[in-house]
Amino acid sequence: MDQYINPLKSRYASKAMLYIFSPKFKYTTWRKLWYNLALVQKELGIDISNNQLNNLSKHIEDIDFELVEKYEAKFKHEVMAHLYAYADLAGDDARKILHLGVTSAYLMDNTDLIQIKEALLLIESKLIKLIKTLREFSIKHKDLATLAYTHLQEAQLTTLGKRSSLWLQSLIFDFQELKFIMSNMCFRGVKGTIGNQNSFKELFASNFEKAKALDINLAKKMGFDKVYKMTSQTYDRKFDSSILNFLSNLAQSAHKITNDIRFMQHLKELEEHFAEHQIGSSAMPYKKNPIYSERVASLAKFTMSLQSSGGFIAATQWLERTLDDSACKRLNIPQAFLATDAALILLDKIFNNIRVNKKIIENHVKTEMPFILTEDILMKATKNGGDRQILHEKIRIYSMQVRENLYSGATENGLIKLILNDKSFRLTSKDIDEILNPNENIGFASYQVEDFIKEIIDPILKNK
Amino acid sequence: MDQYINPLKSRYASKAMLYIFSPKFKYTTWRKLWYNLALVQKELGIDISNNQLNNLSKHIEDIDFELVEKYEAKFKHEVMAHLYAYADLAGDDARKILHLGVTSAYLMDNTDLIQIKEALLLIESKLIKLIKTLREFSIKHKDLATLAYTHLQEAQLTTLGKRSSLWLQSLIFDFQELKFIMSNMCFRGVKGTIGNQNSFKELFASNFEKAKALDINLAKKMGFDKVYKMTSQTYDRKFDSSILNFLSNLAQSAHKITNDIRFMQHLKELEEHFAEHQIGSSAMPYKKNPIYSERVASLAKFTMSLQSSGGFIAATQWLERTLDDSACKRLNIPQAFLATDAALILLDKIFNNIRVNKKIIENHVKTEMPFILTEDILMKATKNGGDRQILHEKIRIYSMQVRENLYSGATENGLIKLILNDKSFRLTSKDIDEILNPNENIGFASYQVEDFIKEIIDPILKNK
Amino acid sequence: MDQYINPLKSRYASKAMLYIFSPKFKYTTWRKLWYNLALVQKELGIDISNNQLNNLSKHIEDIDFELVEKYEAKFKHEVMAHLYAYADLAGDDARKILHLGVTSAYLMDNTDLIQIKEALLLIESKLIKLIKTLREFSIKHKDLATLAYTHLQEAQLTTLGKRSSLWLQSLIFDFQELKFIMSNMCFRGVKGTIGNQNSFKELFASNFEKAKALDINLAKKMGFDKVYKMTSQTYDRKFDSSILNFLSNLAQSAHKITNDIRFMQHLKELEEHFAEHQIGSSAMPYKKNPIYSERVASLAKFTMSLQSSGGFIAATQWLERTLDDSACKRLNIPQAFLATDAALILLDKIFNNIRVNKKIIENHVKTEMPFILTEDILMKATKNGGDRQILHEKIRIYSMQVRENLYSGATENGLIKLILNDKSFRLTSKDIDEILNPNENIGFASYQVEDFIKEIIDPILKNK
Amino acid sequence: MDQYINPLKSRYASKAMLYIFSPKFKYTTWRKLWYNLALVQKELGIDISNNQLNNLSKHIEDIDFELVEKYEAKFKHEVMAHLYAYADLAGDDARKILHLGVTSAYLMDNTDLIQIKEALLLIESKLIKLIKTLREFSIKHKDLATLAYTHLQEAQLTTLGKRSSLWLQSLIFDFQELKFIMSNMCFRGVKGTIGNQNSFKELFASNFEKAKALDINLAKKMGFDKVYKMTSQTYDRKFDSSILNFLSNLAQSAHKITNDIRFMQHLKELEEHFAEHQIGSSAMPYKKNPIYSERVASLAKFTMSLQSSGGFIAATQWLERTLDDSACKRLNIPQAFLATDAALILLDKIFNNIRVNKKIIENHVKTEMPFILTEDILMKATKNGGDRQILHEKIRIYSMQVRENLYSGATENGLIKLILNDKSFRLTSKDIDEILNPNENIGFASYQVEDFIKEIIDPILKNK
């Protein structure tokens, strides 16, 4: 309790995501990389015995972290420390072929990529889940007329399901980017100190095909289809930058969605679930604050801010590699994933418990309808032969007058009366009655939701 | 001369890119959108005459900007101003059907997308050109041994063509992202005030298929294959954010590449072209400064900084749209494209005139070779039966000693002697001679370059 | 019309700010720097004639920009081009002593500082004006009870003047930072190629006091009190970074303030001025959109995004200077000032025409009062001997119940009844009546406003 | 080992800084705030007994974190959980007056400010220490001639002490900003739910002077001189933004300084200390990599990226407060301080063990001198009556020629010969010999260092 506790760890993120970026995951991956290196080298004809392989294989999980720490204090070199600790377990025979022809970047860079891949898969599954939840929500509320807002001013009618489909559209953007990243993702492979596979020229007697085989075969053993053909000591840090872009983009969606929820909760139209004993405010117990949405927005701001560090690193790597990426990479990539994980957990929680106050939504619609239907009135009037631009100007002036009256205390919206009395609109009471029907005034919102889900969402969810 | 002049305009960007973001391009596109709207509406059965269409069609190019200005002073509304000015030309008959069922966002958002698409195409062609240039450069220098640097310290040998292939790899990242964006790009379409195609429900007698047809047919007339099925008043601002991400990513590549060039020019290994009368410095005329590379790095910093504005806008759009995107969008998107355009022009200029000082490169290699071949010595010694970890420690200590001597004035690198004299290395003079051959010490660099170009670059360039 | 037009120039910024960053201002400043250099050199004993000085002095304003362009095409060096053009006017005699001992950075860096200083002064005067306007606004509305919002949920009462004082507090932060920057601002001075005053050692026969005198005397002639004692070729780019920080900070205030206004305009409590013929929306003429506030928020996002470029430049300047600052500096500093200038113009416009709808504000207060006064009820009950924690829990439960009822269609807020009926609150009707008085429920808001203006604002405005 | 471990905690930051942001520090501060609240309330006449105070006072340190956790699981409200746990210890008598009139923000916001203040003090002491170290370094090397670099090209001579004084100048910028922030820093104070001191109007019978006294007296008890006169529920988040600006600015200095060191280590002129058993690279044992400098640069990138989150939060706080600051504040502020703390520890380590390779520096100077002294040659020639512009052009052409020769294998720099042979330079061998003296070519570098330390640095360090 006497040190900083990162709240992503103590409060917000899932155990699964925390594990991916844990020492345990990282260093067992190193051992898997060492073991599989030897295995593939043996397959390609290097003189490595089954006994050596077995001795490596059986000590993948049993890391003695205290011993590692001692070695690191001595060498001030993380890889050397783990190498010695592993070799101590695997024995002197295995020690001879351990780390053969490779350098730190083989372990570090490939492990980073493996962690990122696992983290992306976890994000993908949560994103799919959220998309499914919002799909249900959108279908359920596709016909529920509600006030739309532009400039935060009432503007025509939409439906709640249409609005939530807009959030879905944002998430589809993110999902497509995720698939793009994953389908292009490569293993860094085993390419030596500066990426030229120098040491393998020696080991494989100048046989480039063998060096390539080592690279791709090892990638496959570690779960990758492809390997970068071109690396320096490291894979291009542009990849990390693209990961932070993706996570920032997803954070932008989360920020936008929860801003909308916070606004609707202000209108009392929507409400986050409120636990029985939950205390909204120590001083104002009546309040129902959208605290999960606010937390999502807060985490999103953090994730978005990390984005620039990815670009800064990629842009300032010098020649075959400089180490001014390392400390920052240990902070920005894991925390951007943890914060995104936390945001997705919260969004799921919000939508699984959200309350829709239909009566309030209906009341809001009814009160504002005369105002927001001026476009329809205009359309009808134009259809009846009126001049659009002239009537547009008239309706603008009438609206202003009515508004003034309301501000001065009038309790009734007199707009309809003014229009009926103005013959240039060529409108009858019957025309107006037809116009003032909420179901008639949501445009094709419901159809759009159905069409969108059928054509865009469902193909994505198929087989998920 | 008494107002700020944006140097992207006066100094750096191409006329072609400046035109895409010009008033001329923008407002003729508006007129095309108005004309094609009427055209497709007619095709779908709306009562619009050929005469009305013709009157719109023939006034697409002849914008009277002074008249527009007058209307804008009056209405304080950009679209209204252009609408009136266009209608004045097209006549009262056409005026009646102009802008039928649409709102400002139809013009603004679709035009933004059209500008972005044109700008992406221009960037693509310049990027392809740069990739071709770097492909030639890489092939030409694929065997030219040069010192590699990690931590900005000499580290083994690479080849110049291998290094430039790393730059190619960065650009391939960007190219793939560009293709991804373009293949997913959609038209915003014609969907009314809040995206529900409200006005078209009326116009098309509740026929959703007709509203969809209007949307997609219009998109095709304006050069798009697809249309967003789900929009609010606007297309999702996440798209703009993704554009700024892409341009930032490309800027990161440009920054990294030119940093490398600047460092190589420091070593005198590479040199930007120097015009006959060019003055490097008013005070230090002997200097050859890599000013184009520096300018690219400078423009890249600007482009990278704009990235955050895209995310900020997307994250803070409220409900069906707020206008706090507009002024920023007029600044960040065009300028990010202009700065990228300028950077690509400069990179092309740099690589088409770059000078490679082979003798200097060779000298550097020769001087440092004994040091940088310690890994090979280690490999050979290990192969001859030595213990890798013990010898690694010894070679480290010897290297330190030799380095100390050199710092104290020694003129010869005594490392080889020390190693030959230490029997635990099990190495002969012949072993060492074999090791100290530059061509033997570039690993598979040349093969990698060939393989990379054949398998990755050439398929991309095919048909370009 | 066939090139990109920067809207800061064509639409948003003032002529005064555009002039500060114009070629005219910049290059006449160069000539002033050249002239004053010679003048101070003469004062310090260098052999320069009055005739030479006069020839320089009389050609400060008459820049032949076409001639400059020709020279720049030839030399590809901006300073050389202007030097030749100036010398052509000043004659061969003056030419000999022109630019004596200095380098490009003398002109460029000092001019940048002079432009920044002028721009800061312009911002200061506009900021002072805005502070005065908000001071009046705060005093005028210091007693006007209005709903406060936390989490965007109704939360107790505040006053409009108190809320606007919060905006003032933000601007005071910015004002203090501005004063801090200006009081620490130094001239870069005249220090030669790498800042060591090399050439002046020769000119002044190794007399350091003379070199120092040249530096400070020249600074004073150019309007600065102080000169950096320590520069490389340039002044530390951290200064530029601090300017962008300041402008970003001010943008943050502007964004926060206008977000608040946009929210209040949503509530119809405040309203931006709406010109007679202004069109809010082509499709929804009744709407009154807070477009100036939205524009301020939009410009603020742009300014904030530029901030990172300042830090990136400062962090990546290598050794005595690299030129990867230049192109970016020509874009980020001027545009950050222009966007800030535009935002201040708009804020002034907003507050000079803002409409306060008191009746609406009062209605909102009346409707929500029973809910928001639960803390006061709690205080009174505690004072009457109740247990705070127990009653807090009870009031929470009652509030939830009442809220449920309201959502189910109840038209009256039953909270007060429930509390009066619960004896553990120990409250009488009289107690409640005392509590339900708006003027009694704004806390010390009015006093705070008075105190704040007297103690903090007025001392700042004194002598302004 | 199965969760993410933040390396700032496990590897980089000091115990002292980690403690400031620990739960222990935070929650004992809450109790101090509760206790002192009661104490000052009593002093101002509220009926609070000594016994109640004593019961609060003696349980400040003994936090039962398990109990707190239980309450938090129940209430889902951090403050309530700690309130109950504290009251359980302090007893029912004290419970009645605990948290009297205050809300969560009283604890949270004031504690944030207290943590920031303590963290700033810790940074200040480390910054002072670093300034002292660099002061010594600068004095020691003020006369050591070394090549200056502009555009990363050799450019005249400077001294090592002059270069390190440039770093000092950067740090002085940061130090001044730190002092500015600290001198303006205020306590948030005790102002109730929305900042209007509502509850204290009741408690103090409408006596504003008493409410003000409570505010300022409490501030003083908690170590602050001033209190914000104007707050909403929270202090203005612009303050946090200014903290992140400061830490980013300091990171920019650290990045710039260590970039310079990395370049100099590349030149072998400077060298970070290398521990006896330290392993530079598992594959390239001879290398001496500037890994501490690289780590500083890496941490700096992280800190700089966090800056934007501060601005984003401040700009998007709505009305009297929204909670979308909280989660982000728990991540960005502590980590920016921890990363800065780590960078200062590393910088101190670097400079306390840095090795200056004087012989190498001297060799570099000797080799490049003929080239870099062209300005001096030009000055002398001008003094002897030559035309500056003509000779400038000539020397440029000669330099290019000589450079070409060197690139083609020439081993001697022929520039001086060419100049002596060209009579228009009017220079003798004796002139040239005078020019080619390193000590004569460092300008006033040494004087500047002395002057700067005496006039700028020492006054700052006085009494430190």
UniProtKB/TrEMBL annotation, chains A, B, C, D:
GO biological process: 'de novo' AMP biosynthetic process
Originating species: Borrelia hermsii (strain HS1 / DAH)
Keyword terms of this UniProt record: Lyase
Adenylosuccinate lyase C-terminal domain mapped to chain residues: 369-453
Pfam families noted in UniProt: ADSL_C, Lyase_1
The protein, known as: Adenylosuccinate lyase
GO cellular component: cytosol
EC number from the UniProt entry: 4.3.2.2
InterPro entries in alphabetical order: AdenyloSucc_lyase_C, Fumarate_lyase_CS, Fumarate_lyase_fam, Fumarate_lyase_N, L-Aspartase-like
GO molecular function, one term: (S)-2-(5-amino-1-(5-phospho-D-ribosyl)imidazole-4-carboxamido) succinate lyase (fumarate-forming) activity
